[in-house]
# Entry
Amino acid sequence: FDFDLLTITKGSKGATFLYKEEGKTRKLDMQAPMVYDMKDPTGAGDAFNSIMTMFYHDKILEGNRKIDEKFLKRSFNTANKFVGLVVNQIGARIERRERTPKKEPRQHEK
# Structure
């Protein structure tokens, strides 16, 4: 098979990436960070794959298909931050948080 990037997800054990660099297939194993207060793993894999796909898609749009360790570490870390939001609540949806309305600046009295 000819590929730029193959991601093997291993749940709480992290992920393995196989990618091409200078014509050679490289392998990078990444450990998943510890998740505290996990309530429900539903949607964790979907959340992870969504962020990884977004990073890869953005790279292609930039006209740069080069995959390297720096790119993989950055996208992996961002994906895991997003997964942390998903697993720390019940269900796969991230709860929408209401924003506090910005206060109008006070007018100085003369």
About this structure: The mean pLDDT is 84. The first helix runs from residue 44 to 61. Helices lie at 44-61, 69-87. The longest strand covers residues 15-21.
